[in-house]
Amino acid sequence: MTEAAPSTGSTPPVDRAARILLTLAAVAVAFAAADTYVVVLALPDMMTASGLGLDELQRAAPIVSGFLLGYVAVLPLVGRIADLRGRRPVLVGSLVLFAVGSVVTAAADGLGPMVVGRFLQGVGGGGLVPATLALVADLWPPRRRGVPLGIVGAVQELGSVVGPLYGAAVLAFADWRAIFWLNCAAGLVLAAAIAASGRPRSSAHPTRSSAHPTRSSRREAIETPSSPPVERRGLRRAAERGTSRSPKRVETPPPDLVGALLAVLAVTALALAIAQPAPLRDDVEIGTLFLPVVGELRWTTPIALITYALFAAFIARELTARRPLVAMRAWPATARAVDLTGALLLAVVLGCVIVAFASADPEHSVVSPAAPWLLAVAAGAAVAFVLRQRTAKAPLIPRGTLRERPAWGALVVSFFVGGALIAALVDVPFFARLTEHRDSQLAAALVLVEFLIAIPVGAVVGGYATRWIRPGWIAAGGMALASGCFVVMAGWERDALSHPSSVVALALAGFGFGLAVAPVNAALLDATPPPTHGIASALVVVARMVGMLVGISALTSWGLRAYHAAVEDIPPLSELCPDSATACKAYNGALIDAGIVQLSTVFTGAAVCAGIAAVAAAVLLSGRRGERAVESS
User: Could you read off the pLDDT of 131-159 as tens digits, one per residue?
Assistant: First the structure.
């Protein structure tokens, strides 16, 4: 049985404002997750718009890897900023950056701007996850945070189901650019809603006495990221007087409507400068706005100069407004506290690893041809990062953040969960296309829905179960179930998908993955100090994404070796079909069997990864819940 955080006082209920804020953040996470899968359908049209042919898929890889690079490499920095500046500013900033990236992508007329837009989308979309997970830890006590963590995990995984459907619906009525224009609108609406939502009351860290705060409880009240600065100053004065009297209420200045207007105008001008719509460009009078002032440089057109002026006006407004949309005046202090050098070194490590594995051709190697020097650079940057961690006055990852076994154990578990999960995401549709649905890509993709739809269900159940069962046991049980299902899938024959047992195997595998989502996050948050929940949540997401990249490269390479070995054992065509040299069902069937051998090998590797994750969860996440949170407060 799990143990709640010891406290002599009662835990106040989570208020309505907290639930509204979490709902908005969860919707934002789901929307950003859906965008990851939307591109799968829009990629052919995006390639054509960027001047690439459909046979140049390798050159189009940066459209996908650019998003991954932004999502993963900058995530630790965003997580640390969430610890220093608070969760709400990071959520709003991430959504705004996601919207700007959507504008750049939608208006792009070449591969370069498109990759830049996708990178910005990745940074914005990735920043939502750790800020939301840390927000849950701020607002819910350890014993009760499993359910909201499960909900966040559920909506994130639900994005993988909704994303393709959303993309297909938009593409049925408009072109690919409409997807990103809608992303921009949704991102700005969610950012405004989160910024305008009420300030919730935190019930995550009950103190020992409300009448006479101890030194640790005073520090906790002062350092809580979700508390506004005015409230923290009032709490500090109250703590110094030895009472918990609420601070004097200070009138809040009105929202910066002028800044909002300048931001909208600047983004609109940027979109026009990039897209240069033909009806406007070809107009006799309006078209002069798109004529370069200097040579043929399109970024010297009048509309581009107007864009620069609007952004400059927006920055000036944010630096002087009483209640700015973006707290730019605090940026210098944040930059000094964040350890940008450490963040840059870690970004280099992650970036090199991503490129080394994401651009690999698994048929020839697990890593890309440039991997030797990429991994060498990553190793050098990793050594420099470790030295920086030890010597910096305020390192990127505060000392002691991952000291507890469940804290670093959550990263290990997430890495192997990612390695196993990617096998299902990629190879289940591949198996369906190879065997049951050879003529329908859509029908093959729908087979994966049987797996994906069970993940959110498992996430909610796993989160609810943390109220009574240790997180490590729940995660271990879920990953053991997934491992067993992969073993079953490794034994599938050609007609496997025609039997109801395949639906059961896929659903149980998805349910098992879902069971592990909330417990892993709960174990991490319980084992790390509250002021580091943002960076800790970022690291667990990074571990899972890196596991997915390494897993897909390693498992696919292993499977292709098995495929080539199986092909070598196929008798010659003249022996199988001596009467026909062009149409040979026996030979085609043998090739299908070789493909099944390849996928069986991948599923076996995924079973091993899931099994390792199960053992790691049982051994490493077995710390007592709530102890670390209370000790650090």
Answer: 999 999 888 888 888 888 998 888 888 87
The sign of the torsion formed by the CA atoms of 331, 337, 338, 342 equals: positive
Output the CA torsion sign for 282, 286, 291, 297: negative
Judged by phi (left if over 0) then psi (alpha if -120 to 50, else beta), residue 174 lies in beta
In 446-598, the DSSP E strands lie at none
Owner of token pair 């994750």: 613
**CA torsion through residues 87, 530, 34, 541, sign:** positive
- φ/ψ of 391, rounded to 5, equals -105, -25
Count CB neighbours of 144 within 10 A. Answer: 18
**What would the pLDDT profile of 101-138 be if each residue is shown by its tens digit?**
998 888 887 888 888 999 999 999 989 999 999 999 88
Classify residue 70 by burial, with Cβ atoms within 10 Å: 0-12, 13-18, 19+.
Answer: buried
Q: What's the token pair of residue 338?
A: 């964040």
Instruction: Return d(Cα 135, Cα 624) in angstroms, integer.
Output: 22
* Mean pLDDT for the chain overall: 82
Report how far residue 485's alpha carbon sits from residue 505's, in angstroms, rounded to the nearest whole number: 5
Residue with tokens 């571990």: 543
Whether residue 42 has pLDDT greater than 50: yes
Instruction: List Cβ neighbours of 582 (8 Å cut-off, separation of 6 or more).
Output: none
Torsion of CA 525, 529, 532, 536, to 10 degrees: -30
Residue by residue, what is the 3-state secondary structure of 377-394?
Answer: HHHHHHHHHHHHHHHCCC
Residue type for 265, please?
Answer: L
